[in-house]
Each structure stands twice: as C-alpha cells, then as structure tokens.
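Write out this protein's structure.
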Amino acid sequence: MAACLHYFKNNLLAMRKIVLMILWIAPYLSQGQSAEINFRIKDFKDSIAYIGYHFGHQKYLMDTLPVSEDRFSMKVNQPKQGIYFIYTPSYYFEFVMDGKSFGLETSVSGGYDQLKVSGSKENELFRSFQVEIGGLQKKQRSFVERLKEATGEDSVRIMKDIREVNVQMEDVRKKLISENDQSFVAAFLRLMRDPDVPSLDSISDESQRKMQRYTYYKSHFFEEGQLQDGRLLRTPLLYPKVTKYFDEVVIQQPDSLIRELDWFFGQIKHDEESFRYWLVTLFKKYAESKVMGMDAVMVHMIENFYLTGRASWISEEYEKTLREEVAYVKPNLIGKQAPPINAVDTLMQAFSFSDIQTGYTLLFIYDPDCGHCKKSVKKLEEVDGRMAELDITVVALCTTTDVSRWKKFVASHNPMWVHLIDPTGKSYFRVSYDVRSTPRIYLLDADKRILAKRLEIDQFLDVVERMKEGL
C-alpha cells in the first residue's frame, strides 16, 4: 500500500529529473465535447504552470498555462479521464481529469487539506482519499521513527500499532471503492488491490494446494474489465501492475510468457491506444531481455502482432527491419534443431552434424582477425581438458572465405577441434546462426538441438555439468 501511495506524494526532486515531452493525442485536438478547468493556487510563485498527465510509466506535458494572480485555466477538447498534474520547478499537485468542466482551489502550503472542488465528484473523492490517507501516513511515520529507538515490549507494541494503521489504510480504500463503485477513482484504487487468496485447507496435498492457490492468484490478479478500461493507462499504477504480472506472476519460460501475452493482447484488442502502448512497451522489454531464450518471445510478438496488420502504425522500413530480425533469430531459438552447415573440414570434406558422436557439441563461429574471437579461442584452449571430461566436441566454423588465412589459424590452434570453412561464401549459416557479429557460440545436445547460446565459455560448461547431474 505504501509503495502505491508513493505516487501521490509531492516528490519535487524526482519531478525535476523528468524530461517532459509534448504528446498531443489526436482526441484532444478533435472537435467535440470540451471542458474548461479553472485553477486557483494561493501564494503561487511561478508565472507559468505546466499541466501534464501520467501515461504508462511516463509523464507527458499537455499544456503550458500563464498564471495571473494565482489563477490559471485551460480548455480541453474530448477530455480523457486519468491522473493529471500541475507542475512547476517548485510545485507539484495531482488531480483527476474529469469528463466535464470543473474548478480546483487550494494554497501552495494547504495541499489537499485546503482543496475546494467545484463541479467534479471525482476530484471530491480523490481529495477525500488523499486527506484520510495523508493523516494515516503521518501517524505511520511517527510510529516508524519511534520504532528505531524502541526495544523489547515497546517495539512489539509499536509494530502492532503500525499493522493497525496499515489495516486502517486498507479500510479507507475499501470503503471508498464500495461506496463509489462506478467512479474512476474507485477503478484507480482497485489497481492497488492484490487478490485475497483462499487458504484451500480442504486440499490435503501441499503441492496441489500451493498450485491451486497460485492458479487462483493468477486468474484473479486483474479484476474483470480492468485491462479493458483505457482510462487506467493514464494513471501511475497500471504499468507496475502489468509489469508485476509478467515479471513475478507468470512463469519465466518463453512458452508461458507467449501464452500469457496472447491472452493479454486479446483482452485489450478493441482499445487501439492501449493495444499500441502495450505492444510497443512489452516488445521492447523482451527484445532487449538479457535472459537466454527470451528471443522466442520477441519472434512470436513480431510474427503474431507486428506482421499481421494489427500494428498499422509501423512504417514499411520498420516492417522490413522486423522481418529481417525474424530471419536471423528464429532458426536458432533454444530447443530448435541446429540448422545444417554447408562447409568443409581441413581435408576439404563436406561436414555433417551426424559425424559428431559426442554427447555435446560446442559450435564456435569466429573471424580469425576478431579481437573478441581471439580471447574466446584462448579461453576454449584453457578449458580443453574440462571439455573432454564433459564429452564436448568443439566445431570451429570460420566466417572468412580465405582458405589460406583459415589454414594459418588452424595450424596454430587445437587440431582436435573440427575446423570448418565455407570457401564459396554461399552457405546460409551467417543468417541461420545470426552471425551479424562474432564470435557466435552455441551448445548442442547429442541430437544436435540447441541447448544454450550467448553465454560465456565457463557458463556453457556449467550448463553441461548441471545437465549431467540431472539438475
């Protein structure tokens, strides 16, 4: 609860670090229903007030208003509900954008305690919540300070007091929601709520009970209609909730994430703004992931969302880039059969993976003149004995077509490796193994399926050791 309430606090230092960007959403510019919002902030020291709004995990500037005698006002076409804010280098104040005209009046020092609202039930609710929670937070901070000095029974009593305040905060939130169920503020506050998971004590098997509790928690993590409510995108709470779902609730395996992403986008498919925001945001998340195997999630998102016409906003050039990314990444996803390599060995004989009979194969793709490749070769030679013990064969595939350069390299390095080259330059391995930079290293099992990639040499060997130990 305290983490969520962080968003309501006047964190001026953090606000100064925000780069405010102009983002004019089309509905604001279109003709139609308009609203006028009038502000009066007594003792306001600045001549300009900035109005902005939350959108996903960022804040955007919406308008710049001149201030005259503590007053400023704005007109908005087609106002979209959400959490908006007044910002200057010395002042920050959040309010609810209602669907109609309204007025807000307070003082710089008075905040929500002195706030007077006219014409907006939503801002009345928002004010009431802020005032009640603010009082409880003040009490909580007092207890926390006392706890630092307390010992023994005193600390136990203070901890109990803190828990009681937490319960009171939750009660405030629940009461506002239950009494104003259809309001935007209630929808906003529901984002704070985690599912109340039943104990399920009737299930005697502990592992089954844990699984059923997890299933319940996951299926109730988002309340019905919550993802379809486009207003919540303009709040600071939806983004962390969705992020928590994909990072902590969903099992961190590509297949599980892909299944949940399909479900998630199915929920928001009719809200173009939400669909676009979350597609761009989640695609970036998995495209930039450093976790091995998550490129499968990226490929799935490209093929099922970007290249199906659903992302109508992308340019032809970007679509071409995405298609190229799939061509380079999809053939070498974890779990896939290693693509065949059209190359020859030192006897100029055609190579086939079937010639490798060891339990594991380390495919090392390199350029003889690449500095990183030389460091990797040195490391490979240092662990040669360990690889032999682990039943690993090294297949060293050179990217150059210069046979003389290749032979010079082979002559000065481990003759027990399977050294390969494609002297014709016609092999497709540069695409099927994503050789846009070198070195590229892949670990294959006995059936020549890809087990691991993009790891350090020692990490590849650790993978083999864990597999041999059955871990």
